[in-house]
Amino acid sequence: MRKINSVLPEWIATHASLGDHVKPDVGVEYASNERLWYLLTLFCPLLFESYAVVFHPFWIKSEKYLSNNNLQPSDKEFDYKPITWPHFFKLYKEEFDLYSAVEVQEGIRLLLLKDQYWPSHISFPAQGDMEDTQLQRIRDVILNLYGDIEVCYYYCLLKTTDWFNDEILYRGKLSELEELWIQEDIRDNPSAIFPDTKEWCIVTNYDSDVTYIGGSQELLRGLTSLQGCDVYQIELKSNN
């Protein structure tokens, strides 16, 4: 793993470094319940055969916290643990569906904020950051399909430890992902991961609770088959 003095290649630069210059397809209109599809056009280069959305997990200390009557003294010592969106929705008797997922989780947020303070036992999905194990499992599917290839690991400015410098680009093998977690000039997981071959990419934004993946249908089949990883295939909306 090494840091490189380079710039993002043109094919991914516009999307990975999301700014006002990024515009969705002007020929397509998106309804309020199609935010996931709209964000896909902003975050991910539209170069691929297939696409998937990855939901960053919710975090709770214990499901017992949802009912104070079930709390035990030892429960207060539990660490937060990640749970998937369908699991979290089920705790609040809500059904998970791609089209309604964003609106449902926003409704749960309002419910939890009804007393004007945030409950200490729940943390909502990290913005711009997949959970470590989630990213490792996705990486392993890619590694098994493409081999231990060299890729770029991109960190936007807000994921660096010194906001007064610049974005950071690391280069290394897929198997070296974990080495990023001990680097002192970056934090969290990459904003984008991609190979030079443009066969696939993983990209998110610093204020997003989802990540997008573009690639082949074979790759997407492998990713969406991961149990408990919250990866779902998503189709581009046509302007026809």
Account of the 3D structure:
This protein is of the alpha+beta class. It is built from six helices and eleven strands. Strands 1-7-6-8-9-10-2-11 form an eight-stranded antiparallel β-sheet, sandwiched between helices. The protein has a three-stranded antiparallel β-sheet with strand order 4-3-5. The longest helix has 15 residues.
Name the structural class: alpha+beta
Number of helices: 6
- The coarse overall form would be globular
What is the succession of H and E elements?
Answer: EHHEEEHHEHEEEEEHE
What amount of the residues lies in strands? 15-25%
Strands, count: 11
Name the average pLDDT. Answer: 86
Segments where pLDDT lies below 50 for 5+ residues? 65-77
Distance between the termini: 45 Å
Kindly list the characteristics that best describe this protein:
alpha+beta; eight-stranded antiparallel sheet; about 240 residues; 11 strands; single chain
Quick synopsis:
The chain is an alpha+beta fold and 240 residues long. 24% of the residues lie in helices and 18% in strands.
Write the layout of secondary structure elements.
Blueprint: E1 2-3, H1 10-16, H2 35-43, E2 50-55, E3 58-60, E4 81-83, H3 85-91, H4 101-112, E5 122-123, H5 132-146, E6 150-155, E7 168-173, E8 192-194, E9 201-203, E10 210-215, H6 217-224, E11 231-233
Antiparallel strand pairs: 1-7, 2-10, 2-11, 3-4, 3-5, 6-7, 6-8, 8-9, 9-10
